[in-house]
């Protein structure tokens, strides 16, 4: 009976407290305290003695309501394009008395002097007029388009069929799919230094470690194979080889490619071959697809229309799967198909024009484009070689030339970023600092500009260097004394 009375009294207290707080326009926080006797709860009829421990005002209640708290994903926060990060942070104010000459962007269409061929344009017009390519295509691309790519790049030492080709939205997506299908977070890939910044951007965003292997400017940017091999461990899952090279303009010999394959074979590491500049090599220097030299190393070769056909905006790329020893097996192929299904592949109109683009573009078109780039490379290399404090490295292909800055002779600048920033300010010539490629102390020049602009740019670079060159830095003088 006593228990029931205490429980009844507790209930009345609860009701009274609630009513009192309501009358005061406040809400109350009620906390169970057992039966108030030595902290033991009452178990008789399941009711508990409760006491009011405090009241919450409407303002306090409002403060406790859930609030918006939206965070960007880890992947997005881990994504960084070094080129954009560096360029966006530079203070680029051109000299108003001199027209800007941009030698920084790897887009051959910027100045309009290198248009694609008329037959390439006609192939696109025909694809549009056919009304056959306005719908969705398979995520990996139309089979007949894949077969056209396979036939174009197939050779006796590296045969291809349509099933070995995945069409992508540009070569960048091809690289993205290749890294994604091979690697898991916590594993690592080997990437050239200096090298195209996208490899690092994609890998780091996926939680994949990037290990940079050295290229040797004194050996025309060949890979330091000893350094490369020293980086390999049990978590190394992929070797990225870029040939011809961005940003170096180098083209590897057959012998050097075979040495690279030997390292990959010893350690059973597949190769991601970035060959977007395939066949964009200067006369007298041959291009060898690394897959054509491999007997056992599986290779995902990435390419596209962007550079050789001078249509980077058309966003048509591909992955060529070379796996004669069946090291990839069905799993990698299936993985690539699944990853391609995340989006619906490249533009269907370009796919419809692809066979004609590959087979009907005249050889003169390729030859004329290469001739222009080579001529600019000769102008640039010859001119910059005579400028004290600069050391250009002669290219053999692609669209680029790398120039070393002997920083000790330019004590007024802290870095290649500072050097190129001031070059814009004083001479309105914009070259990309090689810090963007993890290679400070150099800058990259794009060779696709009109020839008269190339000559003018080199003249301005000479004037700039002459104005800032010091025979020896103060630090060096102190050491000599």
From TrEMBL:
Reactions mediated catalytically: L-tyrosine + 2-oxoglutarate = 3-(4-hydroxyphenyl)pyruvate + L-glutamate
Keyword Transferase recorded: yes
E.C. numbers: 2.6.1.5
InterPro entries: Aminotransferase_I/II_large, NHTrfase_class1_PyrdxlP-BS, PyrdxlP-dep_Trfase, PyrdxlP-dep_Trfase_major, PyrdxlP-dep_Trfase_small, TyrNic_aminoTrfase, Tyrosine_aminoTrfase
Cofactor dependence: pyridoxal 5'-phosphate
GO biological process, one term: L-phenylalanine catabolic process
Keywords: Aminotransferase, Phenylalanine catabolism, Pyridoxal phosphate, Transferase, Tyrosine catabolism
Gene Ontology molecular function, alphabetical: L-tyrosine-2-oxoglutarate transaminase activity; pyridoxal phosphate binding
Residue stretches making up the Aminotransferase class I/classII large domain: 99-461
Pathway membership, UniProt: Amino-acid degradation; L-phenylalanine degradation; acetoacetate and fumarate from L-phenylalanine: step 2/6
Taxonomy, superkingdom: Eukaryota
Residue numbers carrying N6-(pyridoxal phosphate)lysine: 307
Family under the similarity heading: Belongs to the class-I pyridoxal-phosphate-dependent aminotransferase family.
Primary role: Transaminase involved in tyrosine breakdown. Converts tyrosine to p-hydroxyphenylpyruvate.
Subunit structure: Homodimer.
Protein name: Tyrosine aminotransferase
Lineage, broadest ranks: Eukaryota, Metazoa, Chordata, Craniata, Vertebrata
